[in-house]
Amino acid sequence: MYSPTPDDWQDANRARWDERVPIHVASDFYELDAFRAGKDVLRAFELAEVGDVTGKTLLHLQCHIGVDTLSWARRGAAQVVGLDFSEPAVEAARDLAATLGLGPDRAAFVTADVYDAPTAVPDPAYDIVYTGIGALNWLPDIPRWAETAASLVAPGGFLYLAEFHPLTDSMDDATGSVVTDDYFSSEAWVDETPGTYADSDAPTVHNRSVEWQHPVGEVVTALAAAGLRIEFLHEHDVSLFPRFGALERHADGCYRFPADRPRIPLMYSIKASRPAPHER
Predict the structure, then answer these.
(1) Are 187 and 214 a contacting pair, CB within 8 Å?
(2) What separation in angstroms does the CA of 257 have from each of 202, 246, 262?
(3) Nearest-CA neighbor of 170 among 189, 146, 192, 193?
(4) Gyration radius (Cα) of the chain, Å
(5) What confidence tens digit (pLDDT) does each residue in 152-194 have?
(6) Those residues with Cβ within 8 angstroms of residue 149's Cβ, 6 or more apart along the chain or in another chain
(7) In what helix (H) or strand (E) does residue 25 lie, and over which residues does it extend?
(8) Which domains does the chain possess?
(9) pTM score, two decimals?
């Protein structure tokens, strides 16, 4: 249900994520054995839009157990840093990095709230600040997030965001064709659903979550106001999970609407850069 932001939103969300870390580590959803063996978990559109990361430094905000973070290291990033507010998630990420033979000089993970990132990460700025997927909905204040993220982008570097499109949260679950909720709602969404996206049948105790919906225009405007230059905003007709009953799974593992029905955007991505001094 929608409600004003509860005072315990952060504690509730942290307890929920802490409890789900071991479930995710053991789940078929994350397939960590396959990941350790070399499976790449990054999405094709992300690889194309971010480009070559060889020799670059990359900060991943809200990294969870670090599979995306470590994938960028495997693709040649000189150093990756992952940040998450869940200590069990960070511990899992460190363990995973160790099994891949990536020491702290190549892959470091820190526990901190995303809004505290500038004082928590080891370096003041990065070539790439990366965030996604399913991250912004856990944050109440997008302008503050944008200011924080932008402050960590080095001159000549960029922020890259890949996210689920907020329009999907306004549509009916069965078909994704009927508007059922307010796209522009700014109130918190408080839920008590047990289980997790990685295992809906997993027994869980800490089920309370507090989330927010952020229109795409709010995100773009906040990044521009924080001093970044918007390079692109792309909308995608694919999802990573069957958000609507009408979606069909394709050979690439992504979900799309059937070819015979109108589409809506299911995900979006933004690249926003900080010009180098000579480019100003």
Answers:
(1) no
(2) 28, 6, 8
(3) 189
(4) 18
(5) 999 999 999 999 999 999 999 999 999 999 999 999 999 999 9
(6) 61, 117, 129, 131, 159, 223, 226
(7) helix 9-26
(8) 2-279 (3.40.50.150)
(9) 0.95
Q: Which two tokens stand for residue 162?
A: 């890949």
Of 267, 256, 270, 261, the C-alpha closest to 146 is: 270
Token pair 């700025």 is found at: 125
Is the bond preceding 133 in cis, omega lying within 30 degrees of 0?
A: yes
Q: Mind listing the pLDDT tens digit for each residue in 29-87?
A: 999 999 999 999 999 999 999 999 999 999 999 999 999 999 999 999 999 999 999 99
Instruction: Tell me the one-letter amino acid at 182.
Output: D
Looking up tokens 């593992």 gives 253
Cα–Cα separations (whole angstroms), residue 116 to 62, 133, 175: 12, 20, 39
Whether residue 130 contacts residue 160, with contact meaning beta carbons closer than 8 Å, is answered with yes
